Amino acid sequence: MGAQTISTNYLLNAPLPELLEQAATLRDCGHADRLSYSRKVFIPLTRLCRDSCSYCTFATTPSKVPTPYLSPDDVLKDCTRG
Ligand code: SF4
């Protein structure tokens, strides 16, 4: 299947099984059975933040952490450990 334009009207009104079949066809044409994976590493250089989002459980105050910033050695350790 080549590139094609699908109208909004079609997307809103087509039966779900038909949409799923078309989505699967487009996916298979574009990527077949290839999967990609990218390992992410989160290295929080600090837990201090100038914002104060009420939902945040990450940011803290300097008095609540032993050191405000990760040391270069700790950063390297996290990088190599992954
Ligand atoms: S969510 Fe937490 S870390 Fe993110 S900006 Fe808000 S207070 Fe800062």
Q: How would you explain this protein's 3D organization?
A:
The chain is elongated, with a radius of gyration of 23 Å. 39% of the residues lie in helices and 0% in strands. The chain has helices at residues 8-13, 16-31, 72-81. The protein is mainly alpha-helical. It contains 3 helices and no strands. The chain has 2 domains: 1-36, no CATH class; 38-82, no CATH class. The mean pLDDT is 89.
Beta-strand segment tally: 0
Biggest sheet: strands, sense, closure?
none
Q: How much is the radius of gyration in Å?
A: 23 Å
Which oligomeric state applies?
A: single chain
Number of helices: 3
Bound molecules: iron/sulfur cluster
The proportion of strand residues reads under 5%
The ordered H/E elements are HHH
Task: Give a topology summary.
Layout: H1 8-13, H2 16-31, H3 72-81
Bound molecules: iron/sulfur cluster.
Residues 49, 51-53, 56, 58-59 line the site of iron/sulfur cluster (SF4).
Task: Give the tags.
0% strand, elongated, mainly alpha, binds iron/sulfur cluster, 82 residues
Structure, briefly:
The chain is mostly helical and 82 residues long. The chain contains three helices and no strands. The two termini are 40 Å apart.
